[in-house]
Amino acid sequence: MIHYYKRNEIAIAKYNTCIKNSINSNIYAYSWYLDIVADNWDVLVLNDYEAVMPLPWKRKYFIKYIYPPAWTQQLGVFSKREISEGLIQRFINFIPNKFKKITIQLNSGNGISFLKSKKRINYILPLNNTYKDLLNKYKNNRKQSINIGKKNKLIIKNCLFSELEIIAKENYSHLKISDINYKKLKLLTEYIQKNDKGFLLGVYNKQDKLVGGAIFLKDDKRISYLFSVVTLEGKQLQANSFLIDTLLKKYANSNYIFDFEGSMILGVANFFRSFGAVKETYFLYERPFRLFKSLQF
């Protein structure tokens, strides 16, 4: 039986254990992550936390709707057993009618051919090979970019979130990231650093000036490329290529998967593929606005 629990009714230990042990586990679904990035969230639970489906939601005026929070690529149904399409459909059908619109980016373990949905592409790279083997799969242009970084004596070391935020606001205004989402990203960064759930790395030129950097999430299975920035000089010095290569070298020959977190943008996708990354498909499910369903507040 599927149950609907509000946030304050969730058995957090059981919930997080379900996420951790899921065959399709990801860091976005943990309670601490959703507490930071989601305005509100509740959950659907199968029996005694055999499977779960977190439901991040917002309220606009008196209308509640389910949405994908910023900094959260994939949610959906999580279970330690294989997830059938029938189970996914049961969960989706059980979403309370009080949510008048539904937008969910399901995870890569949630196939939903029975629903009208949009395919999304992610790129991942298993790191269970030596660095030499990984490097052999790089495209030639990527190897050349990395060599530019080496010749210019780029250095990788820790940096501050505030430094990355400054670069982002100066160089990425077209992304229109809101102040509230920057604030959530800052809180997320503080949490992952204190709890060994991720890290920040900066790329510095030989004058020790920060020219790029990124925020990485890290759980038991994946290292995720959550957020990255680069200055104009950093682009010329190939800071992003140098940074990713440095990280892949560090975690080569491990059980980690490097998650590039996208992308549907051709140029970005080509950049990720140039490291030997492979496609991972997930789906965006949307149910249009329904005002006149029975209200449940």
From TrEMBL:
Organism this protein belongs to: Lutibacter profundi
UniProt name for this protein: BioF2-like acetyltransferase domain-containing protein
Superkingdom of the organism of origin: Bacteria
InterPro entries: Acyl_CoA_acyltransferase
